[in-house]
Design brief:
The complex is a heterodimer of chains A (122) and B (317).
Chain A lengths: L2 H18 L8 E5 L5 E2 L5 E6 L9 E5 L12 E3 L4 E5 L6 E10 L5 E10 L2
Parallel strand pairs in A: 2-8
Antiparallel strand pairs in A: 1-3, 3-6, 4-7, 5-6, 7-8
Chain B lengths: L1 H17 L7 E2 L2 E2 L14 E12 L8 E15 L2 E14 L5 E4 L2 E12 L4 E11 L14 E11 L13 E12 L3 E8 L2 E8 L3 E10 L1 H8 L11 E12 L9 E11 L3 E10 L9 E9 H4 L12
Antiparallel strand pairs in B: 1-2, 3-4, 3-17, 4-5, 5-6, 5-7, 7-8, 8-9, 9-10, 10-13, 11-12, 13-14, 14-15, 15-16, 16-17
Classes of the chains: A mainly beta (122), B mainly beta (317).
């Protein structure tokens, strides 16, 4: 088998696998509002996360905590929009640093988790 | 003694059953990409095809300087969540100065790996592995050895996401590494050449070799998803610049301490179901060579491509 034949085979595999995998993958965080590590001047009413894959609503959750580790969300989080967004409402929060923690199950059955902070500073 | 064995087996079973999932090179929120030059510290369902290396090797003894191209592939498959097997093969093309070129397969390599420790909180992994280069399965003319080489190894991976927030810029860093001892099953090879009345005997000694290396990575996906969204365009959010150092140190049989190796700066782009990567291959000393080579890979995440079939462990979840 020549190197050219191997390279052609790999290219064919790439095309087949890419097409086959078009609807799957781990759900990684694509972006968030408020932004990851960002600063907002006024307290946000909600936190929204956008993921790279569609999520299983029953097994995807989100929490927001203050610096003391106490929850400041309204525990109404859920999957919204096109199935790739996770949103939760916040109570009225004072200036400070808040931690957003999430754990989600993508529709291809993979679990991913993570957390980040944002700051409210007028 | 029997109690100790029972305890060890119980701990092993407990670890296999209760530890958090480690597929796809994940430890907590840390995604470790598959590196190009050194082995990964995790077990996975993944396919590398191809991994291409091109470099010019220096002249050595009677051997002329040679341009070498390797095209290899590796399939990794989880048997259980934390125990996997891998198969690797390569096609080698040697193009020596002032001599005809040669092409042939290298020896088949079989690997077993047990991901013994995973800490989601500290983004850490430790694995134990055993590699077996099956002698005589490749072509001798392209330098495939006729004897087996067995390599027990220890692997590790550590993300720095647990650094204090004041060091936020360093949190996307991760270090992976490997140290293994390549044990040849033959200590020397004796070659006798008869030309007319002259008989020439050549003895090649095969030392034990410490194979070690590490990869230092800076993950832009980690930076933008968990530390600080700095507004990078979509393409750049998936880039992972890295430097790999791959070293071999013979330990005995007249070659002790003659370390060779390469430093490989490069970049990986990790997509949803595959990643691509390219690196320069820079020799660390004249013994290794003087010319810079290049390495590139295309790597597929089979657990994402086939999540309900081939991408799952054969046993367990």
């Amino acid at each position: 088998m020549s190197g050219t034949a191997l390279a052609r085979g790999a290219l064919a595999l790439a095309v087949v696998f890419t097409v086959a995998g078009a609807a799957t993958g781990h759900a990684f965080l694509d972006r968030a509002e408020p932004r990851v590590g960002g600063r907002v001047r006024t307290a946000p009413a909600q936190v929204t996360l956008w993921f790279t894959e569609r999520l299983e609503p029953a097994y995807s959750r989100l929490q927001v905590m203050n610096e003391a580790g106490l929850r400041v969300d309204k525990d109404d989080g859920g999957v919204v929009g096109d199935g790739r967004q996770l949103r939760i409402s916040l109570t009225t929060v004072p200036p400070g640093t808040y931690r957003v923690a999430w754990r989600v199950l993508s529709v291809d059955t993979h679990v991913t988790e993570g957390d980040f902070t944002f700051r409210v500073a007028p | 003694m029997r109690r100790l064995i029972t305890l060890a087996l119980s701990l092993l079973v407990l670890t296999l059953v209760t530890s958090p999932a480690g597929a796809h090179g994940l430890a907590g929120k840390r995604f470790f990409p598959s590196t190009l030059a050194i082995d990964d510290p995790f077990v996975s369902d993944e396919l590398t095809l191809p991994n291409i290396l091109h470099i010019k090797r220096p002249a050595s003894g009677d051997e002329p300087a040679t341009r070498e191209t390797e095209i290899s592939g590796e399939l990794s498959k989880r048997i259980t969540r934390f125990f996997g097997i891998s198969l690797e093969g390569e096609l080698v093309h040697l193009d020596p100065d002032h001599a005809p070129s040669k092409t042939g397969f290298g020896n088949l390599e079989i690997g077993l790996k047990w991901q013994a420790f995973t800490s989601a909180e500290h983004e850490a992994l430790v694995s134990l592995g055993l590699g077996w280069e099956v002698g005589g399965t490749g072509r001798k003319a392209t330098e495939a050895q006729s004897f087996d080489v067995v390599t027990p190894s220890v692997f590790f991976g550590k993300g720095f996401g647990d650094l204090p927030d004041s060091l936020w810029i360093l949190k996307p860093l991760a270090l992976t590494g490997v140290a293994g001892l390549a044990i040849p099953t033959r200590s020397r090879t004796r070659t006798v050449t008869v030309e007319g009345d002259e008989v020439e005997e050549e003895i090649e000694r095969h030392p034990h070799v410490l194979q070690w290396g590490f990869a230092l990575e800076y993950s832009l996906p980690y930076l933008t998803s968990f530390v600080r969204d700095v507004g990078l365009p979509s393409f750049f959010r998936r880039l992972i610049p890295l430097v790999e150092v791959e070293l071999q140190t013979p330990l005995d049989r007249g070659q002790g301490g003659h370390t060779t190796g390469t430093v490989n700066p490069g970049i990986i782009w990790a997509g949803r179901v595959f990643q691509v990567g390219v690196e320069a291959v820079v020799p660390i000393n004249e013994r290794t060579g003087k010319n810079v080579g290049v390495r590139a890979i295309l790597h597929f995440f089979l657990d994402d491509l086939f999540p309900t079939s081939f991408g799952r462990p054969l046993f367990g979840k």
